[in-house]
Write a structure and sequence with these properties.
- The structure is a single chain.
- By secondary structure, this protein is an all-alpha fold.
- Helices cover 67% and strands 0% of the residues.
- The protein contains one helix and no strands.
- It starts with a helix and ends in a 19-residue tail after the last helix.
Length: 60
């Protein structure tokens, strides 16, 4: 019975560590997503560089 309890406690510890790791990774992804979203909203994205009339050269 004690061996079974110890095994369950070890499994619970492993699961808590895995959950903490996933939550940490999710937070990092959300932080990066928010950063990218902020850059797009502020016009800092390079993907729209050619569509801004100020960046286009005149052919005159």
């Amino acid at each position: 019975m004690k061996r079974r309890l110890k095994g369950m406690e070890e499994e619970a510890t492993t699961l808590r560590k895995m959950q903490a790791k996933v939550e940490k990774e999710r937070g990092a992804i959300q932080d990066r997503s928010a950063e990218l979203s902020s850059n797009v909203e502020n016009g800092s994205s390079n993907s729209n560089e050619g569509t801004n009339p100020e960046n286009q050269q005149s052919l005159d």
